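Example 3.2
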Amino acid sequence: MNELHTKLWHCQKELEEKMAGRKWNRRVGYIGVGACLLLIAGVFTTVSASEPPQEIVGKDGAPMILIPEGIFPMGVPKAARDGGLDERPNHDVFVGTFYMDKYELTNGRYLQFVTETGHRTPQHPTDQKKGLWKQNMMPESVTDLPVINVDWKDAETYCHWAGKRLPTEAEWEKAAKGPNDWRFPWGDVEPTLEHLNFNQSWRGEATLTQVGIYEKGKSPYGIYDVAGNVWEWVADWYEADYYGKSPARNPPGPETGDYKVLRSSGWQGETPQVRIFTRIKSLPTDRNNSTGFRCAQDVPGPSTH
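Structure, written as tokens:
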């Protein structure tokens, strides 16, 4: 906007000089005003062209929301008295601009991936009753439900196929609560069944809800289901004391580990567990009926052509 102010100032001065010492001439005046308006339009076009769009559609057809760069307080809110030791200390983290899937990855999109790549179907490893797919077939009724029974590698492979990646833990939390030191994506109001799908027992596909239906539960950026429905894999290895030593800018997580991090909380979570800062560890090979994922994507750099 500084560029706009500078150009408008010069435009105004040039017009004043032309009109100095003479009576107002409508023709000259209108031409001058018109030139300034064209200048404003040109500057705004330039500014708009340099800014990434607020929403895009990924290669897999999934809508994605722009998460702007900035600092946010990560971990247990400063005023909170609960939270695990591995969720402390509360620390400021800068995260660069990126895109995040608006919704948890659905069975319908995963079917496209399986069909095109021959990747294994999302099956529970020991109990077929804890799955949504019937052998290798996906019932149409689960198309818009979040995919479950996927391990970390399944999630990573899908994101790579879609031209994306798994979000880092810091990116996930930033997308979930914005710059706010909140307990939940919507603020500090205790959750209800109008905010999220939680506190459930397994009842097959009836346990899960269609993605994107909880308007009251979405994040400040418009990301849905970042609390409840399914746990979500992120890119990071788990380390209990990582928050105490993580970089202040774009923390990538530990270089190695035995466990990966899960965020969000699933359909069975109770109120204390659906807090936005909750993090748990899971073996990357674990597949269960409460875990899914969503993808992130870097913002393309300016074209050099």
